[in-house]
From TrEMBL, chain A:
It comes from Clavelina lepadiformis. It is found in: Mitochondrion inner membrane. Residues 7-70 form the Tim10-like domain. The twin CX3C motif contains 4 conserved Cys residues that form 2 disulfide bonds in the mitochondrial intermembrane space. The lineage of its organism: Eukaryota, Metazoa, Chordata, Tunicata, Ascidiacea. This is Mitochondrial import inner membrane translocase subunit. Residues 88-97 have a biased composition (Polar residues).
UniProtKB/TrEMBL annotation, chain B:
It is found in: Mitochondrion inner membrane. It comes from Clavelina lepadiformis (Light-bulb sea squirt). Keywords: Chaperone, Disulfide bond, Membrane, Metal-binding, Mitochondrion, Mitochondrion inner membrane, Protein transport, Translocation, Transport, Zinc. The keyword Transmembrane does not apply. This is Mitochondrial import inner membrane translocase subunit. Mitochondrial intermembrane chaperone that participates in the import and insertion of some multi-pass transmembrane proteins into the mitochondrial inner membrane. Also required for the transfer of beta-barrel precursors from the TOM complex to the sorting and assembly machinery (SAM complex) of the outer membrane. Acts as a chaperone-like protein that protects the hydrophobic precursors from aggregation and guide them through the mitochondrial intermembrane space.
Amino acid sequence: MDPQKAQQLAAELEVEMMADMYNRMTNSCHKKCVSSNYSQGTLEKGELVCIDRCVAKYLDIHEQIGKKLTQMSQTDEEMMGKMAQQPGIPQTSLQAP
Amino acid sequence: MSGQMVVDSPSQLRNIKDFLILYNALTESCFNKCVTNMNYRTLTQIERACVHRCADKFTNANKRFMNEFTKLTPEMIRRRNEDAMEQAQKYEALLQESAPSPTT
C-alpha cells in the first residue's frame, strides 16, 4: 500500500473516530446535564454551565486515557519483544497494534 | 495520533480501527462511571484516580474477553462446519435416491 493512500486512510479513520467520540460525548453529557423534564425548550443556566464543564471533563479524560493506552502499548510491546527473544514461546498478539 | 499510524494492510486497518473504537468506548464508560461532580470544570483528584483504575480494569477485562473468545470461537466454527457438512451429505443422499437411474 503506497504511503499516500495509507496516510489518507489514517486521516479518514481519525475523522471517523472523532465523530464517534463526539456522539458518545453528547450522549453522556446529555444524560448528565440536561433534564428530561422538558417543561421548557431553552436551556437553564445550570444546564448550560453543566454542559461546558461536562465537555471539558470528557475531553480531559479522553486525553488522559490516550496517554495511558499508548504507555500500556509500549510496555506490552517491550514485553513481547523480550518474550520473542526467548526460544520456544508461541507468538500471539492480542493487544493493541 | 494519526501522524503515528502506518496502515499497511486491510487487516491492520481493522486492528487499528478496533483499538480506536475500544479507546472511545473506554472513555465513555469511565466518564459515565467516574465523573460525578459537575461543580468544577477540571477533574477532581477522586475522579482522576477513578479514571485510572477504570482504564486498568477495562483493559484487563478486555484482554480476558479476547482470550476466551479466541479459545471458544474456533471450536464453535468447527462444530458449525461439521453440522453444515452433515446437512449437505444428507441432501446429496436424498438427491441420489430420488434421481431417476439412467437407462440404456
